[in-house]
Amino acid sequence: MSTQEKVLEEVLEQTIEQNNNEIILYNDDVNTFDHVIETLIYSCEHTLLQAEQCALLVHYKGKCSVKTGTYEELVPRCSKLLQAGLSAEIV
To answer: Start and end of every Adaptor protein ClpS core domain (predicted)?
Structure first.
């Protein structure tokens, strides 16, 4: 095995080992679009366009993945969404 192949193999192993989770935001009949958008900007650091698109997907599809990362990174963000009255979970 050449050095280049060995290095490539090590990089691929490191990439596969990362376990990414997602925050899933669910639709509800309580919160307004503006509240959802503002909360996504604050909690998940979305741009206005990202937040609007997620809000529309949640409304029409029933749910949307709004943030990916490690479990430890997502817990405080998901907590902010829940404290704001949104329905979300980490999967």
So the answer is: 18-84
pLDDT digit string, tens, across residues 28-47: 999 999 999 999 999 999 99
Please give the Cα distance from 82 to 39 (Å, whole number): 10
Q: How far is CA 17 from CA 8, 9, 51, 65, in A?
A: 15, 13, 29, 21
Find the domain containing 46 and state its range: 19-90
Distance in angstroms (rounded) separating the CA atoms of residues 18 and 29? 36
The whole-angstrom separation of Cα 63 and Cα 54 is 9
Number of domains forming the structure of the chain:
1
Check which CATH number belongs to the domain holding 76 and give it.
3.30.1390.10
Residue 61 lies in a domain: yes
Is 11 part of a structural domain of the chain?
no
Nearest to residue 81, comparing CAs of 26, 29, 34?
26
